[in-house]
Amino acid sequence: MLDGTLNHPKSYSIAALLHPELAAEFEALQDRLRDRILCIWQTELNARRGHGGLIREAITRIEVVELQHRRSRALDPHIHRHLWLNIKALGADGKWSNLDSRVAMKLHTVVNAEGELAARTDPAWIDALARHGYTLDLNGEIAELAGAVRPVSRRSAQIEGNRARLIAEWSAAHGGSAPSVEVLHQIDRRAWAVSRPNKPADLDEAWWEARVRDEIAAIDPSLIATRAPIPLAATDPPALDLDLLAAQAVIDADERSTSCGGRFSIFDIRAGAIRALSRTGVVAERDRFDGVIAEVTERAMRSVFRLVADDPPAHVKAFMATETVRAKVRLAGCLDVLAQPGRSLLPEELRRLAPNAHLSTLDASQGVAACAIAGTDGLVTVTGPAGAGKTTMLRAAFTALASQRRRMLVVAPTRKAASVASREVGAAASSIHALLTDHGYRWGTDEAGAKVWTRLRVGEVDAITGAVYGGPSQYMLRSRDRIVVDEAGMVDLRTANVLVELAIEQGVGLAFVGDTHQALPVGHAGAMGSAIRHANAAIELDTVHRFRDPDYAALTLRLRDAGDRERALVVAGELAERGLVARVDHHDAARGRMIDAYFEWHERGKRVTLVSGTNAEADAINDAIQQRRVDQGELDVRVAAWGMGQQRILVGDTVQTRRNDRLTGVENRAQWIVRGIRDEYLSLVSVSDSGEVARVSTEYAREHLQLAYASTVHGVQGDTADASVVGPDVDAAGLYVGLTRGRLSNVATVVARTDAAARECLAESMQRGTPELTLQDAVSAAQAELRRAARKRERRW
């Protein structure tokens, strides 16, 4: 079966709980959305016929089971539905067969977009909200109830923690077996009842509603007060700017295409058109939007670049944003100009120029890399696995450059990474954006939401600060200096273009140091790969120095580039044989396993990295760990501050700052322990250096501070801990980075029923998210996808 979930913002469920009329309207909204999705499935999905399944067969009948839920598993208000689509369908030829699962999965973006459109534009729903004094904010939440979402979710996290503990206790008492559905229902009720005195054993609907209303009132009494109706101010469909919507549709598809090398499909453009329409403020019956969506999609498709010669089926990712194509081509041209030939230092020159750099500790590849960076080639790249000793190599190159009266400036995608390099190498350091800002570059978004770079000339007024730009003052560059780009695999395509442009202008050399197999940029990847192809000297570090076990170090090299499925299965088998795979039966158990791992290492006084597949899962783990620490008496809820998204912050919490702040000295992605909370500020101490302290305002905390017991791969890139635990649903980079963070222990958590299935799951993760680094890579991938796709049957006249 395939699962399609109708999931709306949680504030809708809170509103439905508070107002019976809104509850009825919300159910009616979901009914209309369900009917729409069923029609989409029946018209857009297909079966496969013929040799290799290359003939597309239309569908005449599908079978769907609908499940309606009022609550989350944690028994908090969360109205949602599951549409379980039978994989078997009746084709137009009268035969039952499997649906084309590739089409079904890639159509899901349209289904999600339809849900967003319905929630924001349905006249009956919007009118009902207005009658109760509610409006929708830019995120689609009910603005007047959005403040209750996080506190309710925090209670949900407490329940999830109780649930995970009770499941673990039950399994331990029953020989490690998994609880049945009935036992899980009993555990759900017990988990919800913990810390709520005098609760009945069985859930009573009316009592549950009253109790949750009381909890919402305790959060803020005004939330349950009657609100005055508000007038509607809706946009009429004919007044829409279709060209602007088309541009927004392309940007939406482009931003969601980063994991596919910038490729997207007609389905992706159509979903982007629907999302763009949903955010215009228009309110009308859904049928009135069909023509608008079709026209916006058509205009958007006329402005994109097609990667294949034939007209592809709607699900094939065979298109790319024209601006992304230009960025790839432009970067290649600029790198070619930058790559002015010079030469690397000879080994004896390196020894003479860096006599005190402990060169004897460098392996052969590190020595070659240091000679290249300290040499005169315009473009150098150094790639290598985690733990390959890039810092040691850079220290030698820095000393050799200084002996030539040449400066090294280390830049990185984040100031945190740059600061680490500065401390360990000795060179001046900066985030890439700080360097570019100092040289007059500014970035923002245009009317459609696309990122746009501009540059101030000396004497021009900065529109942001109002000050006259006087030229660079912090990071002056001289000809023959060397800019080293650390963590270069995380530099996005457009930022790389601007950086290379600056290097050419200033006559300085660039050295890209990083790994394309680790975390990719938030934007489009490809900059590091393009630099490798154009470099005068491209060096691969080939020895791992981080791990005490040389066999595990060798295994991480195979994990880094597992290759095809067969090789990936061998690597997965080796990980399992070494006891580095924790198999669990379901995602709840996986979350519980990661939470338990935190406390196991925490009690030993060790630091553990928890790597999750999504930000939502990281948030859930963070909230659960915090709550267990509260329950165990480690944290005190009597003194609290508020972080991003109304996240509760307590003294003793592990947190992460998410924005650079020069006044306080904190950096994006830096991790801290909360040492104290006052009315105006929070005191922080670094998790890795007790001598490094900082103070941030409560305003900064509300906007840029979050719990950091767990994070996604981007949050742990470049970090090293005593141990690391990787959760399910990570991609290849997440698995590799996660399993190379721990000095003492690295474990992958896998959801599977058998050990063989666990190895299959791990191998799949090693294949997931493999980057397409060049335009030719994207063309090849699109052509391969097109060859696998079923096509319409040719007509015979």
What does this 3D model show about the protein?
This protein is α/β, with parallel strands linked by helices. It folds into 4 domains: about 1-220, no CATH class; about 240-315, no CATH class; about 340-440 and about 475-540, Rossmann fold (3-Layer(aba) Sandwich), CATH 3.40.50.300; about 550-775, no CATH class. Helix content is about 45%, strand content about 20%. The chain contains 27 helices and 31 strands. The strands form 8 sheets. It has a 6-stranded parallel β-sheet with strand order 13-12-16-17-11-18, sandwiched between helices. Strand 21 and strand 22 form a beta hairpin. Helix 5 (about 145-175) crosses helix 22 (about 615-630) and helix 21 (about 585-605) packs across helix 22 (about 615-630). It starts with a strand and ends in a 5-residue tail after the last strand.
Q: How many beta-strand runs? A: 31
Order of strands across the widest beta sheet?
13-12-16-17-11-18
Largest sheet: 6 strands, parallel
Alpha plus pi helix count: 27
Q: Taking all residues together, what is the mean pLDDT?
A: 90
Q: How many whole angstroms does the radius of gyration measure?
A: 28 Å
**What amount of the residues lies in strands?**
15-25%
Helix content: 40-55%
Structural class: alpha/beta
What gap, in angstroms, lies between the N and C termini? Answer: 38 Å
